[in-house]
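User:
I study polymers; will you set down one protein's sequence and backbone structure tokens?

Assistant:
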Amino acid sequence: MKTEVNILVVDDEEIVRGSLLDWLREDGYQVEAAEDGFKALEKFKEQSWDIALIDLKMPKMDGLELLTKIKETRPETQVVIITAFATVNTAVQAMKTGAYDYLVKPFNPEELSMLIKRLVESQSLIKEISHLRKELKKQYQFYDLISKSAAMQKVFDFAHIIAKSNSNILILGESGTGKELLARAIHNESLRAAGPFIAVSCVALTETLLESELFGHEKGAFTDAIAQKKGKFELADRGTIFLDEIGDISPKLQLSLLRVLQEKEFTRVGGTKSIKVDVRIIAATNRDLKKAVDEGKFRDDLYYRLNVISIELPPLREHKEDIPLLVQHFIEKFNIEMGSKVERIAEEALGLLMKYDWPGNVRELENVIERATVITKGTLIKAEDLHLSPQVIKEKGAGPSSDDKTIKSIEKKHIAKVLKENNWNIQKSAEQLGIDRVTLYNKIKKYKLKEG
């Protein structure tokens, strides 16, 4: 255990450094020394340190300033302040800044050994708790989807089962619930896992471009077709193709897609040769496709071929118990991606997140935590770091309501407010709401919102 702990001694007195090095090495620890704060920070750039023993009074940079800088960059390091001028104010200031404890000069080797032993035991406990949390998180994780709620666990269990089949799947759910993540997880669990997973957004392109994207084109098929191009179906051969927002494709593409499903072949745009493919289709939509079929907007034969197996992702407001777990997951994710050192979220801030109804679902929550991770000062996300409408939070805090119209009313007011704040810039408003532009357009139409 001891040999796994490394300690940095920072003191400007050579005799003190030498004594500490000897004592700690006799106890079996890995120890190095630095004669001032700047050299100590250089050593922190080279490696991480479990424990740092820092003299309070040093030239160039005192112990409290060094402690502050260490906690900003290496919050996991436990710091002990060494001082010959112990006062209540000194102790309080050191502890407030993040020190684990302090030693008063002169101290004896036994006193030092006992303190370090307590500290090592404390760190071992922290590491064990962290390990247990990670193991617990694995139980709640289905690839990149995380949840401990009963509703989502049912989704995970069903996804495990249907992944092993070769049937087409239709994933239903609101925007931002994680439909593509679920599709990827199903692919990774399937017998096609070694093959490609190709994702296509059916709403991001015009009919002509989407047709070319799906089926490819021959050189000269249209003005910009300067070379032959393979389509997504061809690239997904022996794998899975994920068609997001399938409810938005045109009647012409619905017919082309039906042929692929029936005949397992297609023709490139501008081509005459039929190309055979072995592809599993996972489609997704936030629309009511059955209603679209009844209204004649979506082919019934295509609907039934896509909807061999359907699976629905619940909105975040229906499994809010997952918010703390998701928040910690996103904090860890953005710490890795951005090199930040955020440790946790304050209780008050978490309370605000729990009150909010999340019209943009998990994607909106992720956006909020990403922004908070960027702008927060220190290692704690506070309430003021959250970019949420105060009015929405206020209304949510007034108490839960079973009246669905009330929830819709709040969502309508919030969307209208964000649109107004951004001068009806759809792209910017959608990003702040954590939803895509199509979803925002649909909500504008649904709530009959008008500019001005």
Observations:
- The two ends are 67 Å apart (CA to CA).
- The CA atoms of residues 204 and 399 lie 39 Å apart.
